[in-house]
Amino acid sequence: MQPIQNMRASTAPVLPGVSSVPSLGRRPQVTRQSESLVQNRLEDVSGRSSAAAPSRQVTAMVATGPRPPSTVQFDNFDEGSDKGLFTSTNPELRRIVPKKEKGRVVVKVVYTVLEAQYQSALSQAVKKINKSNDKVCFEVVGYLLEELRDEKNYEAFKKDVNESNIFIGSLIFIEELAEKVIAAVEPNRERLDACCVFPSMPAVMRLNKLGSFEMSQLGQKKSIFSDLVKSARANNDAFEENLLKIVRTLPTILKYLPSEKAQDVRMFVQALQYWLGGSTENLENLLLAVSQAYIPALEGAEMEIQEPQLFPEVGIWHPLAPNMYEDIKEYLNWYDSRKDMTFAKDAPIVGLVLQRSHLVTGDEGHYSGVVANLEARGAKIIPVFAGGLDFSLPVKKFFYDPLKPTQALVDTVISLTGFALVGGPARQDAPKAVTALKKLGVPYLVSVPLVFQTTEEWMDSQLGVHPVQVALQVSLPEIDGAIEPIVFAGRDSNTGKSHSLPDRIDSLCSRAINWAKLRKKKKMDKKLAITVFSFPPDKGNVGTAAYLNVFGSIHKVLLELKDQGYDVGEIPESEKELMEGVLNQEEAKFNSADMNIAYKMSVSEYEKLCDYSEDLEENWGKAPGNLNTNGSELLVFGKQFGNVFIGVQPTFGYEGDPMRLLFSKSASPHHGFAAYYTYLEKIFGADAVLHFGTHGSLEFMPGKQVGMSGGCYPDSLIGTIPNLYYYAANNPSEATIAKRRGYASTISYLTPPAENAGLYKGLKELKELISSYQSLRESGRAVAICNTIIETARQCNMERDVELPEEDAKELAEDRRDLVVGNVYRKLMEIESRLLPCGLHIVGVPPSAEEAVATLVNIAEIARPENDPPIRGLPEILANSVGRSIDEIYSNSNTGVLDDVALLERMTEACRAAVGEFVNKRTDDDGRVSVNEMMNMMGAIGLAEEPWVKALKKTEFSKANRDDLRNTFEYLQFCLEQVVKDNEVGALVSGLDGTYIEPGPGGDPIRNPAVLPTGKNLHALDPQSIPTVAAVKSAEVVVERLLEREKMVNNGTYPESIAVVLWGTDNIKTYGESLAQVMIMAGIRPVSDALGRVNKLEVIPLEELKRPRIDVVVNCSGVFRDLFVNQMNLLDRAVKLAAVQDEPDDMNFVRKHAREQAEELGVSLRDAATRVFSNSSGSYSSNVNLAVENSSWSDESQLQEMYLKRKSFAFNSDRPGAGGEEGRDVFEAAMKTVDATFQNLDSSEISLTDVSHYFDSDPTKLVQGLRTDGKMPASYIADTTTANAQVRTLSETVRLDARTKLLNPKWYEGMMNSGYEGVREIQKRLTNTMGWSATSGQVDNWVYDDANSTFIEDPDMAQRLLDANPNSFRKLVATFLEANGRGYWEATDEQIEKLQQMYMDVEDKIEGVE
Q1: Residue bearing the bigger pLDDT, 114 or 1161
Q2: Helix crossing, 886-894 with 814-832: angle to 10°?
Q3: N or C of the chain: less Cβ packing under 10 Å?
Q4: Most distant CA pair in the chain: distance in Å?
Q5: Rounded Cα gap, residues 827 and 602, in angstroms
Q6: What residues form DSSP beta bridges with 422?
């Protein structure tokens, strides 16, 4: 490498083979016009003639010299390659055919690799041999693993393998493609002269063959070496690492092997060293060495073959350094003596993590681009690498100060590998990675190089990064705590080499340095922009966030920041004063100057500072538009407190426009939205932004799903500001969208402490009557009490929940009376025991131990056989103590068997008493957990009575197994400590200090207590790990109960088709239960591969299924689509697999309907069997919720048209790379056959009326409108919030929700305690209830009547609501009137008159009219 002279720190070094970095003063211009212009853009880079480039241009920084001359068309893609695959590159580009010369042996080599970095070096090696070697020449062709999905490519691959002498494979870790490789190579294995497979799945490694060396033999025969290989195979997590250990220990092993075998083993290890060495010279010697040893025609041929050139396993590399370094002091000595650049004394230091394979193969241009950009910005760089897949080794070795070994030397780390820190593409070791990163304690960014797509394909893709790459290189690093998955490198379609994407590298480097600056800047000088939300855009909704008291939380945060030394100005005395300061008056008026105006931005300033303002004009016209404006200027709402700005994020802008809501794709942000983020970055100068609560709009703006370009709006909006984001711990799916599309480092917060809903009014009276009946059932008073129970149940509107007899109870036999009372009792227990969050959470205020009791009782209900030791559920332990099975008790209780309903209640009371006593013994005088170790020790050795034993002593469950109880309560001890821990504010302070925030899973803390404590950087899960075996088992139970319910109301007839809605968060919490339900309905079973990834399917035979295959129509939320594209393809494969089974129509409804629809639509059977739908890429929801929340719809047909336009994008496993394709015809055809609709509820925290998402995705009335017979489908909701899973009708669930929340004094009084925000929560529940009326018609009239009686006709309550939040109260009154006007509520004239008068009175109060 030649030295580069005369470089100045203010410009980027021009590295060999790397184009210079564009101006770094501001972000490069990126056109948002059709990204299909990428061909022209790349032609511009290569110097081809083209039209003038658009103003906002994304180019590729090609590190491989000029592209082919213009006479070469884009032949790197197959002609007419619109196959819907993720890549259409042509393997023929990698084919080298030598000139046949007399006397030379022609050896044909076929290779298959995961990534393309070997392509260039291997091609150069072959060309060099073919040019200069007089004994041998090579015909070579290479296939990228992903190309084998294409049938044409796969047939060519098989043909090439059939004709080859040598096969080489590496990093084959995708099972469905591994199976294709095995199917092609295995039949040829004996014929092949040599087969070299380097680190891959064990099944592929078994293809290895070099003379007598066979890995399959070595895995079975006894020898020291075979034991090592077995050990390596057994640990898939570190297979490559173990293989490298074998290489390193080989010299001591070979002496134990026979000479011939030793020679072959030595050859394999040498071949592996050549391959991992990766340079042109090493690959040249690999081909020559293997050919000389195993090609018969070359036996004895003399050739000059060099030993493998070895590179350090871990080291430091720099593009300008004379060599690699293995010592940090040596590297720093060289770095600090450089003459080409000078750095400030306090320059940020950025650690880069690289793959050695890219360095040794000469494919490092993209790394050089990052180094150049960072150094041009004044940052020092320490680029480290590892030869294996454990990158924690160089992190530990090189990222600490050599003079202060416990102190981090770097301020930020960027991994440019895209892989998990430990484990690569196979499986990660997250605990090891987190330990290393937590100790280092700096922000950890993992950027993404394109692997399976070329730059052109990525630019043209709506999906963005290939779903397999998302799973391997985005999802897995997130579990390590990684943030900001920015695509920084493209892949050249001709050479396979990686090249820099300057626009993306510019974004990555500026953001990384801004994270580093948080470590350098004094707290007093740091500027923080706290952003609150106003959604839906009504006048009482500023500061919305799920489960969160936003202004109370901000007040708490400001006080903590003041204590930490931040300049927060004068903090208002109370949260109310704080809110008034931001809103300027307590009621915030949407689109109104009544909110405090922090800044007025002129149009000229806006257009100068906002790079993409012109792109918004297509949707919103010229600035300033009509949102967040006074007509001439753009308005930024909020208020500044010292260096903290509290601002209000503008809304989407189209919520109230019914025509915009009908668009199938979402509109761009409006000018006011862009102006807000322009203000934060360019005018206020925020060092960080804190988005406060679940959730805002930025991350849901249009753009690629994952791996955004500079033309994607979320990327443009967030700019270069580090983004911290408080997110509800139970919503990891949407938090993941914020991480991937908003570059957020999330901080989880707890949902409010749960309580049992309890009983009130008539429901409480019913419980007392049932208690009387039980004690007097043998007496003469039993009949009278039964009659009173029936009458009271009717007064409580329970006649649709329980079958109540019309005749007098004296006409009923005793067992029939018991059954009636038992069913009423069961329904009461269902209501009473339901968990509900009470009030709103304040960040940094954990629940007391007493508040945690209900949560702990529910945690104790669930058996956890996977734990070590296994944990038995408390109800199961108690049931066994009285000689009963818990499943039998649940089953009998579900059918109203009075004795078992009563037994189940006694068990529930005993569980509560035992947990309550346990918590009480661990609580101090302040209500906080205090562990008394002496008492614990005395209990363990029997000197003190264990509290749970004491609680159960006087019950029928006193003989419960002590060991099982102790195991369960030891687990509860751990859970209790997690529940009451608090690091929510601490994690924020750490983030603002530029410190690594420890990752943690999101989900339901009852199902998965590992969610606790909060204050963690939320992550989801490996999308390829679901559904788990346990989830499939649970799914089978729910599907059986669903089908039985439907048969009960249809004279034993099975439904032919069920419409299912899938949610991202639900599937994370349940590890894929609803995903599994869909496949089980169709009679298909998901199967995991050797690495535990679920990507295979098997047909359940009809003899085993014992029922027909049910057709399914699946509509996935936009978030599910973003997180689980691989699983959407798996679902579609499952349905198509069912459709092609040769079975009778009456036993396979999937096939029956697909054949009918194929004929009707004139398409193939497989296309007609497409059943998986969602929004178009980058769009979310049907917008039905926005229309309902803003009353911006005329009739139900308009809502249904929104659903059809926005939710009918088909995901076809035969065209996986196409993403969502408009498929309304096949969607409507499939929906016409639907007999039932179905959704899941998996968490007590979120029910049907808590959020608008559920009714937004409900297709019940839509199906009725599409069916030719106009029949309303049945609607069901599976409730898996407890151990006793239930399947209820939608109307039953809406009634249960109303009774436990909206109409429950415990719930609404809890909300009223939160004042302004609590009133909004009450109003929201009523609006969502009306949403269910609109989409399903399943809301009973009495729900509106009772709500009106509770909130309107009670004058004291109405006044409290009005005083706390007049705007939300006005919306509440308006919703009652709207429900009546739309025919959903039959109200009396008196009720309507009162509501109308009240509406006018509230209007006058808001407008200040006396």
Answers
A1: 1161
A2: 110
A3: C
A4: 113
A5: 61
A6: 390
